[in-house]
Design a protein that fits this description.
Elements: E1 6-10, E2 30-42, E3 48-58, E4 62-63, E5 66-73, E6 79-86, E7 90-91, E8 97-100, E9 107-110, E10 112-121, E11 128-131, E12 148-156, E13 159-167, E14 172-179, E15 185-192, E16 196-201, E17 210-216, E18 237-241, E19 248-249, E20 266-276, E21 279-288, E22 295-303, E23 311-314, H1 324-327, E24 340-347, E25 351-358, E26 362-369
Antiparallel strand pairs: 1-26, 2-3, 3-10, 4-5, 5-6, 7-8, 8-9, 10-11, 12-13, 13-14, 14-15, 16-17, 17-18, 18-19, 20-21, 21-22, 22-23, 24-25, 25-26
Length: 375
C-alpha cells in the first residue's frame, strides 16, 4: 500500500557526533550506523517530538585480530570503553551484532551503542525544527551498559511515559522514563525483566488501570494442536498496572502469530495503542523469515476498548512495507533491507501521523488516512 505523504525526515548524516554523549571518550572513530525507530508524541507547543535511537558504531570494529564493542563502564570511571573479543570466537555475519562461540547459551555483543536523541518536528511531522542534544538520554547504570534502544512514548493522564529497551549482560530489560513536558525525562527503573520487550503503554486507562502490550522472548514454545489457526512463537501479550510501574500479566492471550501467513513467524508491538471511536488501534510488526534479518512489515488490529484481548478487526495485508524509493538517496549507507519498524502514532485530523524506522537507518513519517482502518 502506498500513501501520498510518506518521507524520510531524519537520516544518519543529520546527526552531529561532536555533540554525542560518547564524544571525547574513545580513542577510535565512530559513525552513525542508524538514526531510527523513533518514539513519537505531541509536545505542549503543538509540535511533534521524535525520540530517535542513535546507533553509534566503530568505524573499524575489527583490528589486531579482535572485534570490538563499545560499553558504558558504570562501575569504573564512568566512561565509554572498548572491549576486545578474539575473532576466532566471534561470528560477525550480522552487521548489527556478533555472536560469541564456546558457551552453552547464545551470547552476543553489539557493533554499536545506542542513545536517544529528542528531535522536534513541525506539527505535521514533515520538517525538523530542532535537535535537542542537551536533552539526550544515555546510559547511566550498569543495566544499560550496551545502550538504550527503541523508545515508545504514551501520553496518559497528563504525564508522558516512555518505555525503552536497556541492554547489558545483567539483563535485556524494559525500562521506564516519565516526563511532565516530553523533553525532560526522569528514569523510573526496570519495569519488565529479561527479554520482555516491545512494551507499549495504552494512551488511556481501562477501568482505572494502565494497560500495556508486552512481548517476552524465548527459545522454546509449545505447539498448538494440529489444524489450529495459531502458530507457536513470540506473541503480543497484555499486562495491567495501578501506577505504570508494577505490572501484572493478563491471563488471556493478546495478538498471536497466525498459521495462515508466514509474515508473523515472529511478531511484536509497534506503536502504543490509541483510542478511536471503534476501539484501540494498535500497529505492530510481523517478520517473515528471510536471510539473516528477515522482512519486517507493519500490520494493524482494532481491539475492544474494555477488553483489549479481544480483536475486533485486523488484516493479513501489511499496512506499511519497506520503501526502496525513499532510501535510494542513502543507498550507499544501507546494511539491511526490507525492514520497516513502526514505533509511533499521533492523531493528525483526517489522518494518523505514523513514525517508523526505515532499514534500521533513518526515520520515516507517513500520513495514513483514517479511512484505511474503517474498511
Amino acid at each position: 500500500m502506498t500513501y501520498e505523504t510518506d518521507k524520510l525526515v531524519l537520516i544518519p548524516d543529520d546527526i552531529d557526533l561532536s555533540q554525542s554523549p560518547l564524544a571525547g571518550h574513545l580513542d577510535a572513530e565512530t559513525y552513525v550506523l542508524g538514526a531510527f525507530n523513533p518514539g513519537l508524541t505531541r509536545l505542549p507547543n503543538g509540535n511533534l517530538l521524535m525520540m530517535v535511537r542513535i546507533a553509534e558504531a566503530l568505524r573499524k570494529p575489527v583490528f589486531d585480530e579482535h572485534v570490538h564493542a563499545i560499553r558504558w563502564d558504570a562501575e569504573g570511571e564512568g566512561r565509554y570503553v572498548l572491549d576486545a573479543w578474539p575473532l576466532e570466537h566471534a561470528d560477525t555475519a550480522d552487521p548489527r551484532k556478533f555472536t560469541l562461540h564456546g558457551g552453552e547459551w547464545k551470547v552476543m555483543a553489539l557493533t554499536s551503542l545506542s542513545w536517544l536523541l529528542p528531535v522536534e518536528l513541525s506539527a505535521d511531522g514533515l520538517e525538523v525544527i530542532a535537535l535537542h542534544y542537551d536533552k539526550a538520554i544515555a546510559p547511566k547504570s550498569s543495566l544499560q551498559c550496551y545502550g538504550i534502544e527503541d523508545a515508545r512514548i504514551s501520553h496518559v493522564n497528563g504525564t508522558w511515559l516512555m518505555t525503552t529497551c536497556s541492554v547489558s549482560p545483567e539483563r535485556h530489560s524494559t525500562t521506564l522514563y516519565s516526563s511532565d513536558n516530553a523533553l525532560d525525562w526522569r528514569f523510573e527503573g526496570v519495569v519488565l525483566d529479561h527479554q520482555n520487550k516491545d512494551m507499549l503503554i495504552f494512551e488511556g486507562l481501562i477501568n482505572g488501570h494502565y494497560w500495556a502490550q508486552t512481548r517476552p522472548l524465548g527459545d522454546l514454545y509449545f505447539a498448538y494442536p494440529p489444524g489450529s489457526e495459531w502458530r507457536a512463537g513470540p506473541s503480543i501479550n497484555l499486562a495491567y498496572s495501578p501506577d505504570a510501574r508494577f505490572w501484572k500479566p493478563v491471563d488471556k492471550p493478546g495478538i498471536r502469530p497466525h498459521a495462515a501467513t508466514v509474515a508473523t513467524a515472529r511478531m511484536g508491538g509497534g506503536a502504543p495503542p490509541i483510542l478511536t471511536p471503534e476501539g484501540w488501534l494498535t500497529l505492530w510488526h510481523g517478520v517473515e523469515p528471510h536471510e539473516i534479518v528477515g522482512i519486517y512489515r507493519t500490520y494493524w488490529s482494532l481491539l475492544d476498548r474494555d477488553d483489549p484481548s479481544v480483536t475486533l478487526r485486523t488484516q493479513h495485508a501489511p499496512l506499511l512495507e519497506a520503501n526502496a524509493y525513499l532510501t535510494q538517496p542513502i543507498d550507499h549507507q544501507m546494511y539491511v533491507r526490507d525492514v520497516v519498524f513502526t514505533t509511533g502514532i499521533v492523531d493528525g485530523g483526517e489522518h494518523y501521523i505514523v513514525a517508523s524506522g526505515e532499514a534500521d537507518l533513518a526515520c520515516r513519517i507517513t500520513h495514513i488516512p483514517k479511512s484505511v482502518f474503517r474498511s
